[in-house]
Design goal:
mainly beta, 34% strand, 5-stranded mixed sheet
């Protein structure tokens, strides 16, 4: 079928058309708390604090997920830094993220409230000393330290116990031995005491 007869008016052909609608949606948002620092000697274990979710147009977005970066160790494994990143995605494909970093540190040192005691010497005989007489550093167990009468307080990881004797002095009536004890964290920080 052709165009209508010419009536002196302009003929505009009809073409089908389509309309695309764009719908803008308010995205969700996540708010993380500031980074946190924990002492390794604290009674509370290090922890991440979940973020606060602010809803957008989608009132029931997908569950919040998180990914942890590998721990970055300090001078020993119990001292570290780690980052956690949370993500939420709504059903309009809007995504929000935030992250928190925690740090585990040690600012404390062990203490020695009671230094081990030295058994009395008999003349020049140093064999009665327990642990054995030694002018070089010797490491002992916690049980040996305690058996010698020592008391140590340490709350941050593995510790070591050691001692070193000064050269014996005197004229065997009796000899005098000065013993230096050290209690140290494997991650740094130590306490010392001296017994005579």
């Amino acid at each position: 079928q052709g165009p209508p007869p010419d009536t002196g008016s302009t003929y505009l052909p009809f073409f089908p058309y389509s309309t695309m609608l764009s719908v803008a949606s308010t995205p969700p948002s996540l708010t993380c708390v500031p980074d946190a620092t924990f002492e390794c000697s604290a009674t509370v274990a290090p922890f991440f604090t979940p973020p606060t979710l602010t809803l957008g147009c989608d009132q029931s977005p997908n569950p919040i997920t998180f990914v942890d970066d590998p721990q970055v160790s300090g001078i020993c494994p119990i001292l570290y830094t780690q980052k956690r990143t949370w993500t939420v995605t709504d059903h309009f494909c809007n995504t929000a993220t935030c992250s928190q970093t925690i740090t585990v540190q040690n600012t404390s040192v062990p203490t020695i409230p009671v230094c081990p005691s030295t058994p009395p010497l008999n003349g020049c005989d140093t064999s009665v000393l327990v642990p054995v007489y030694s002018t070089t550093t010797k490491f002992v167990t916690a049980a040996q330290f305690t058996a010698a009468g020592g008391v140590a307080n340490a709350n941050c990881g593995m510790i070591t116990y050691s001692y070193k004797d000064d050269p014996a002095v005197g004229n065997c009536s009796p000899l005098v031995v000065t013993r230096h004890w050290t209690v140290a964290y494997a991650c740094g920080g130590n306490a010392t005491c001296t017994e005579i």
